[in-house]
Amino acid sequence: PKVDERASWNLRDVKFAVGGRLENWAVLLIKDRNDRDEFQSMQDPELTKTIQGFMKMCRLCGMTVGQNLPGLAQVDLLPKTQTDPIRGAAVQKVREALMTLKPKPRLVLVILSSSDKHVYSGIKHLCDVYLDVPTVCVQSAKIRKDKGQVQYFANVALKVNMKLGGVNHRLDDNMMGKLQKPPTMIVGMDVTHPGPSTVKGTPSIAAVVASVDQQFAQYPASLRMQQSKKEMITDLQDMMEERLTLYRSKNNRTLPQRILVYRDGVSEGQFAIVVEDEIPKMRAAFRKFDTPQTPYRPKLTVVICGKRHHTRFYPTEAQHADRDGNPRPGTVVDRGITAIYEFDFFLQAHGGLQGTTRPTHYYVVCNEMSLKADDLQVLTNAVSYTFARATKAVSLVSPAYYADLACERGRCYLHKLLQGISSSGTTATSASESQADDDVRREAEQMWHGGVKGPGLKDIMFYL
Fold first, then answer.
1. Which stretches of 130-217 are DSSP H helices?
2. How confident is the model at residue 336 (pLDDT cuts 50, 70, 90)?
3. Beta carbons within 8 Å of 196's beta carbon, 6+ residues apart
4. The pTM is what?
5. How many CB atoms within 10 Å of residue 307?
6. Torsion-angle region of 202 (φ positive above 0: left; ψ -120 to 50: alpha; else: beta)
7. Considering Cα of 212, then 214, then 215, then 216, what sign does the dihedral take?
8. Closest CA to 69 of 35, 34, 45, 40
9. In this structure, how many other beta carbons lie within 10 angstroms of the beta carbon of residue 175?
10. Where are the beta strands (DSSP E) in 179-298?
11. How far apart are CA 452 and CA 441, in angstroms?
12. Do 162 and 390 form a contact (C-beta atoms < 8 A)?
């Protein structure tokens, strides 16, 4: 496809780089209001037509789609009441409906009639942690509408293909070659913290995602809860070991010789903790792969990414501007305002949608790969085009963006606590501090339930 001046392209008449197989799947129809924007029942001819249209789109995109229609299940949700404010009982009904689907589907397309966050989080928690079934959620109002339906189908197909282990788009061979030789693993890391209206002591969530294929498309994730508001990743050694183990199993028992890490979610004053705390943890993980003959010492480069700054760029000449007067996608600034003592740069990879585009600040704190500034800038810009969920370059380099999404998914599992509701009766203020914190930690562990550990999900991009 041709990439336009906004750093985006269209899926029309274009096939995915690697199409997945969509077979033994199911559609779950959830009715949460009775209005004309939703499908009336599983027998609704409109629903059959929509499903067939979606299957056709998947085939056009190069996926292998069985001839049979998917299994269907329907749920009429219990309404939101005083007794069920965060829809626990409603989600229980979803569980019962999913249990009727035999054999267990490889993927469930969930059609929601409302954008209720409680229901969405409940479904993700249920399917990720307990049922081990990949899900893709869509809004019935959007998937039904003729206007823009083809585009909507295409966007849903992007997610479905990745969850089936496909590859939507990849970089050209020239760019890939630089990453494949010597073999490289690209990693994204992020931590997300509970906000002010949450139950006190609600854990923070850390995510580490890492590429496992030579296309740099699939980034499975490790997720962990950790001490509330703690910026550094406590279990990083363990998480990095998990990522390397999976890489090795997917690359006939070989390990990457280079590891490029993009670390998001660190404020400027905390860069030192990445160097003093996280890099040693990563090296400790590498040592676990030592053999008596050869120590495992991959070359490590760590880049911190930040969007929380007030720097904006304005083109000084018309040829450097897009039609909104923003800098063109791919603009790099690495002299003038950046810090002198370290290697860093601002990159705006994406085309602006509205208002002034905000570039991302990339700050190199370790560079054993000996990447020159220009090479890392070109590479970071290129990897910003591999974000699987969109047909455009994104503003934050894809692996960091994936880690961010994985953290968001982890928040679904602790949804109740993040909504400020605790069953131990601990409100945001009462109870003795340490006792309350222990109660909340125990409650969080119960909800987390060991995280995503099922064979159907743990090695795919379930969080997309």
1. 140-144, 149-163, 173-180
2. very low
3. none
4. 0.89
5. 12
6. beta
7. positive
8. 45
9. 18
10. 184-192, 204-210, 221-226, 258-263
11. 18
12. no
Under 8 Å between Cβ of 87 and 119: yes
Query: How far apart, in whole angstroms, are the C-alpha atoms of residue 425 and residue 442?
Result: 13
| pLDDT exceeds 90 at position 207 | yes
Q: What SS3 class is residue 138?
A: strand
Domains along the sequence of the chain with CATH: 21-166 (3.40.50.2300), 173-407 (3.30.420.10)
pLDDT at 270 over 60: yes
Cα dihedral across residues 225, 367, 459, 247: positive or negative: negative
**Tokens 């490029």, residue?**
260
Task: Give the pair of three-digit tokens for residue 248.
Answer: 């090795």
Alpha-carbon Rg for the chain in angstroms: 23
Find residue 392's DSSP bridge partners: 8
At 294-326, the pLDDT tens digits run 999 999 999 999 876 656 666 666 666 666 666
Question: For the segment 8-40, what is each residue's pLDDT rounded down to a tens digit?
Answer: 656 666 789 999 999 999 999 999 876 777 898
Nearest to 221 by CA among 210, 232, 231: 210
Distance separating alpha carbons of residues 186 and 263, to the nearest angstrom = 11
Q: How far is 226 from 203, CA to CA, in rounded Å?
A: 5
